[in-house]
Amino acid sequence: MGVMESIISKAKSCKKRIVLPESNDDRTLKAAEIVMREGIADIILLGKKEEIYKKAAGLDIAAATIIEPEGSDKFDLYVDQLVELRKHKGMTPDKARELMKNPLYYGSMMVKLGDADGMVAGAVHSTPDVWRPVLQIIKTMPGISVASSCFLIEVPDCPYGENGVFIYADCGLNPNPTAEELAAIAVSAARTAKVLVGMEPRVAMLSFSTKGSAEHESVDKVREATRIAKEMMPDLLIDGELQVDAALDMEVAKKKCPGSPVGGRANVLIFPDLNAGNIAYKLTQRLAKAMALGPLSQGLAKPVNDLSRGCSAEDIVNVVAITAVEAQQQ
User: Fold this and answer.
1) Going by DSSP bridges, is the β-strand pair 118-121/268-270 parallel, antiparallel, or unpaired?
2) pTM, entire model
């Protein structure tokens, strides 16, 4: 069973409520039909029922819960909650009322208050538009200073990682993380590996240097991030700084980092900045013909995932399944 099939099976084992705020999108409605037909999750669509059914002509979405934000019985409660959360930033009732008409804000508040277990958006809206309400309302989980993203990578016929399965982070959100942020990314990625794939994380903090083979301020950052991550999660198998060959290949690891707890067998790869992470996942995807699923959100207090605007209905189904599995661990 491939990693995505395994995730879908997990999602089906304990169905969660996933809100899809972009009910005006054909791919989203098609994905909703598939998710409900296959029993992956329960779906909440935001928008006017009449318009949604008109848009979904020919699709079976009868099992979906449809909520029109402005007309809902929880609208005023959500407005009050937004004022309370953002009053230190000057949020007023009038401003909160306008924002809560936006399905992304309404969906985020549903997740925040437990009226939905997770949210998937981004087929229509840009990443900043999706993340803004999420970071304002849901925020990061306790002890994690920064939200981040990762890719779930599955490389066919690959002896490295977890039989070819890896978590790559951060490949889509933080351009140049500080040592503290890089440590938080590592801890979040380790959790993602355990929750989504069920694998024991072995985290490599990557650099162009292995254990002092080079000196540079960017190497210092990776070393410091490794130290901080160990303090954050003392039982975590993590090491750095490591070059990627030392992280993946046991024979290289024996020469470059003998005694490393993850050398030669890392399955979670943490890149020093967004340049490295983004380049690496796209090279892996193209040259190794790998499945690269993401960017997936991590470090948030509740599960929300952002889609690419070029996504397919199948992509949305997969991300709904991932979000549902993440929600099972809350």
Assistant:
1) unpaired
2) 0.90
